[in-house]
Amino acid sequence: MSKILVIDDELDILALVKNALQKDGHLVTIAESPKRVELSSLNRFNLLLLDVMMPDIDGFAYCQKVRNLVDCPILFITAKTLEADVMYGLGLGADDYIKKPFGIGELRARVNAHLRRETREKRNILAVSGLEFNLAAKEVSVNEQRLSFTKIEYGICEFLVKNRGQVFTKEQIYDAVCGYDAEGDSFTIAVHIKNIRAKLALYKLATISTVWGIGYKWD
Question: What is the domain extent for residue 110?
C-alpha cells in the first residue's frame, strides 16, 4: 500500500481519482487546494498527483516549491498538453504528465508504474536537500556531478541524512561513522564537517547546522 496525495480544484476529479486508486489498495488523501496541505506532511506520501490550473497556486508553482522537500514522484494531471507546457513542467522536477481527459486504466497503470520504479530505485538511491546519495556505491552527487568526499565525509553525511532533523554530538557521529572500537579522536568530526560545508558551499548548499553546546544536525 502506498500513500498518495491528490490536489485538484475539481471535486469530481478528486472523487474519480481517489476511487480508482483505492481499488489498487492505496491510501489516498485529497485536497482542493495546495493551501490545505501542510508542507511538513509531504514526506509521508509516496507519490503526488497535481492539477496544473488551480486558482490559489498553480501546479507548476507548487511543484517548484516542494520539489526539494520531497523525493517521491510528482505527476501532473492537466489539460495543458502543448509540448512547451509539458517540457516546462518536467523541467520543474515533475516525473510525468497524465493528460485530461484520461482513462481510469491509464491513470492506475501509470501511477503504479511510478510506484514500482520508486520502490526499486530507493533501495540504493536517496535524494534529499538537492543531493543524491548512491547508498550502494557510497557516493553523493549534485546535478549528476559526483562530489569528491572522503570516506568519512560521506559517512557523516549519510548518517545525518538518514537521521534528518536529529541532533548528534561529535562523539555519537564518530561512533556511528567510524565504529565504537575505532582508535581516533571525535574532535576530528568538526574538521570533517568544516570540509563538507566548504564543498557544498560551491553549489550554494548549506545542509549541516551547528546546535551550539550539543552537536550537529542535517536540516
Answer: 3-123
> What is the distance between the alpha carbons of residues 150 and 198, in angstroms, rounded to a whole number?
13
Residues 111 and 199 in one domain: no
Positive or negative, the Cα torsion across 162, 164, 168, 171?
Answer: positive
Strand partners, 76: 50, 97
CATH of the domain at 195: 1.10.10.10
**CB distance 45 to 1 below 8 Å:** no
Nearest alpha carbon to residue 177 among 129, 216, 127: 216
Number of independent structural domains in the chain: 2
Residue appearing with cell numbers 548549506: 206
Residue 62 near residue 70, CB atoms below 8 Å:
no
Residue 39 sits in a domain whose CATH number is 3.40.50.2300
**146-200 per-position pLDDT tens digit:** 999 988 899 999 999 888 888 999 888 988 887 755 555 677 888 899 999 999 9
Q: How far apart are CA 110 and CA 18, in angstroms?
A: 15
Give 83's strand partners: none
What does pTM read for this prediction? 0.56
User: Are 59 and 95 within 8 A, CB to CB?
Assistant: no
What distances in angstroms separate CA 70 from CA 6, 85, 99, one per listed residue? 15, 22, 23
Q: At 107, list the grid cell.
A: 491513470
